[in-house]
Amino acid sequence: MGAIHRVVIVGGGFGGLQAARALKRAPVEVTLLDRRNFHLFQPLLYQVATGALSPANIASPLRAVLKRQRNATVVLGEATGFDLAGRRVLTREGAIPYDTLIVAAGTRHHYFGHDDWEALAPGLKTVEDATTIRRRVLIAFEEAERATDAADRAAWLTIVIVGGGPTGVELAGAIGELAHWTFRGNFRRIDPTQARILLVEGSDAILTMYPDPLPQRAIESLARLGVTVLTGARLVGLDAEGVVLDRGGTRERIAAHTTLWAAGVVASPLGRALVPAAGPAAPGAASLDRAGRVLVQPDLTLPGHPEVFVIGDLALLNGADGQPLPGVAPVAIQEGRHVARAIVRRLAGGSSGAFVYHDHGSMATIGRAAAVAVIGRLKLTGYLAWLAWLFVHLMNLVQFESRVLVLAQWAWNYVTRNRSARLITGEPPAPPGAAPPAPEPPAAPIPPAR
Amino acid sequence: MGAIHRVVIVGGGFGGLQAARALKRAPVEVTLLDRRNFHLFQPLLYQVATGALSPANIASPLRAVLKRQRNATVVLGEATGFDLAGRRVLTREGAIPYDTLIVAAGTRHHYFGHDDWEALAPGLKTVEDATTIRRRVLIAFEEAERATDAADRAAWLTIVIVGGGPTGVELAGAIGELAHWTFRGNFRRIDPTQARILLVEGSDAILTMYPDPLPQRAIESLARLGVTVLTGARLVGLDAEGVVLDRGGTRERIAAHTTLWAAGVVASPLGRALVPAAGPAAPGAASLDRAGRVLVQPDLTLPGHPEVFVIGDLALLNGADGQPLPGVAPVAIQEGRHVARAIVRRLAGGSSGAFVYHDHGSMATIGRAAAVAVIGRLKLTGYLAWLAWLFVHLMNLVQFESRVLVLAQWAWNYVTRNRSARLITGEPPAPPGAAPPAPEPPAAPIPPAR
Lengths: 450, 450
Description:
Helix content of chain A: 25-40%
Strand order of the largest sheet of chain A: 5-2-1-9-21-20
Oligomer: homodimer
């Protein structure tokens, strides 16, 4: 063979970054393309959304992560499509040729066809989402504090979280913690513990992937933080004044100025660029499921394109139990590692081999010192589950530095119940209304001095 | 006397917050009005702008700071004017009556009549300013990395900082540090140490408030970080492609895609609301200087209104040397404390007394382990000055928590020369161009799983 084998990775999330790092000693040239200049530790994003951590605590600049990996180049940019025949990734700044392509473009929010809900109920995928939620939640309490009308105050003190999966549960728990503990003594007119936090789930259970009795324990932990779980409650209406729920055919309106979205995601639109244009699919051709995920071969390659791998949340592969592998970080990380190994094996003349997922468990935390966890056949709740959660998440933060600082921050938060990152930022300072009247500007600046 | 004495403070910066805290044991009711929900430690804002610290590291939620002070109420809102005769602060949500008013509304940027420069050259006053500068500087290096044209690459690698006061010097030093040390090994096509960092000053010296030889030492420290100081260089033109400097009558165009503003501030427009409407000033009436600052009496009260104090950067008072007191944190803090004492003395039947500023020195830091400092008659440079700077700033961070975390972060930054908070956030992910083509949305979300 002639030139060095070029591996292009689209997406620096858990799967893409893991693949890049696992190729460190491989005889290849790695290009990692991402729209953002940092890897985000998404499982802790809800802690940014509730003021416990800063964005930088859970983000690692991709260039810093890969700076000692001389065979890796980070490119800041956005893939707009693929030229599969010509083996090129298309971007606005030009095409990037590859010998092997790894697509790890992830997912985005899905509002069930109600795109107008997006502005009303922010989801939690990006750093900007997290600071938007933080701003909305903090402003809700500020508005309640200055409300003069009792009904208006109640609507500001009602926060609806849509979706009873892990994200919804963790977000609801953290907001309950904020209202019950962090805000203690902070306000003079309202009692923040009177906040009504509603976790709304359309199906008849929350945390459906967890075995009994964990969902029930989670509901009890949430109740202690003032969170009411409403199952069998389908969201059918949403505006700035509140939500409309359908509960077994009965419609109910709840006045709430703050609604947060944790209800669903769909695959990145880049998945569609990997399959032949619409029409009856040719046998053996790549295809998408209804959520836009790419159906991959057992070795994670795209049907008909053994040189293209699809991994992470964008890929759809059934596990040993016949169920699709869940869209969680451990699956993406193991897939990234598998693909790196497959590339090395192929370069040595071998074959890629089927991917096998090793499930080490799952966990979700509920406020301070409470969580639910499944580790193998072990089911944990309460403090022990929370310690396990703490340990696993600290160990997995990409950079050593983040671990130390996050641990220091958490230790402080734990002892004081304070959350120092509760800053209302990113929008005009005074929430309602416009800028103050600007009278004629002065003639000269203040002379420099210090 | 009947009802409790009401003190309203406009502005939660150094002066306003200090006044509120110093009134803790006073027989008064304190209302602190601010547009933001946090106090900002502005002297370290340049470290946020250059990715060394997170906004939350240098911001303290006002409600948290004052939560144990039962006589203090925080109101999130914006003063739009004053009814001095009726003794009320006007806000969009209604008027707040006072018996004593403390106005500590601070300053804002001043672009010498070139308001169009504001969007081109962001200043450094708020958290949003800092993250804007951070984004611009980081994107400049990213654009240089992907530039295909040599002239374009050079323009991206040229960063102009306008203003040779402490803010400009500290910002330039930190950007030099970023280019020379933090980015080492991060890029594959550009050499970040080749960045051209220009500190442009209209007068013939930088750090004019410091005695010789400190300005010269600062220039030498800056040079070691690749910063070129251009004195006697007046900015006469600014657009997205670069700046035009007037150097002793000769005009010079410098191609630069990134220009930052550290050149001047003017007083808050609220100052104007404190003086009688334009026209020949009545004898003894309040008035403003050309920069919009309010000329105050020796006891910091507004002429004609002994119940109104003006403090901090908004106030103009001459010091013992006949020169106006500088607009720095120590002046504002001492003024806040003076006013609190004056209020207590008056309530006890005494008088407010003249304010006397005690100058404990000034310091500016230049990158890692270099600074200039004046402490009494002591002049320090280099490492020792930097240690003094470190100590003073750590001790002054409002919350104990911030001190510990900032120290941990700085220690880590010092050892590794890393800056983990270099996140490009707050704007559409891919810098140039629009969102990718969104093909028809999928029919169903990915089922919840974990």
